User: Fold this.
Amino acid sequence: MSVSNGAEPNVAPAIRVEELCRHYRMGEALIRAVDGVSLTVPAGEFVALLGSSGSGKSSVLNLLAGLDRPTSGSVIVQEKNLAQLSREELARYRLHTVGMVFQSFNLIPNMTLAENVELPMRFAEVDRAKRDSMAREALARVGLQSRVNHRPSELSGGEQQRAALARALINRPQLLLADEPTGNLDSRTGTEIMNMVREFNQQLGMTVVMVTHERALAERYAQRLIFLADGKLVGDEVNSPVAAGSVAEGERS
Ligand code: ADP
Ligand code: MG
Assistant:
């Protein structure tokens, strides 16, 4: 791995969000998509961001990912205030510190899985042989070693999401941001994906922030449930997730 700090001990808070606001102006109307959210996420925690449709979950996640800029307030990830980063630093942040998965997978259709997965490393200027071997390794990790030369359209939804997870993982980010990652999957396939996300959290020590509107899913996997309504944080609860491989989990899947 070229720039990997995944092995560092998890001490400092991974994320500090202070009085975060993201307002959209739509003609005369002002939409307060995110409206004064403050929260701290310790490194290594698995957090679920819950709320009904339109409550601001994706807006918060995109701000954490550095894909969008706040109207006011700040996002500090590993002591870096995203608002103070230069364009290049922000690009590096997106490439090395965060991995992201979406409800709609967002794979590039005319590329093979191997090409999709190695893309972030190409931007990181990793040489070709290394990219190739690491893409294969990441695909093997999510059980897709026999699909490296397939295109996304030749795969099931669950396989596409597994490839998207491999891509999110490839630069060894410390932070995994997932926006409704099981939203387009049946429950069995969704469970498979969630078990992988949990494995990344527990075995690789990645901090996970997962957006979902499904409370049952969040309760099963997350250590903490954060509730949004109308762009505001309206609840923050400690949760005891079901342990990996427990009987209760097997019964429910
Ligand atoms: P959620 O992910 O919880 O469904 P979003 O963060 O997508 O919610 O949206 C929160 C609110 O902000 C909604 O009212 C939505 O319509 C609005 N919104 C989101 N993105 C934009 C945008 N680019 N322009 C205008 N309004 C937006
Ligand atoms: Mg959303």
Observations:
- Residues 24, 26, 31, 33, 51, 53-59 surround adenosine-5'-diphosphate (ligand 1) (CB under 6 Å).
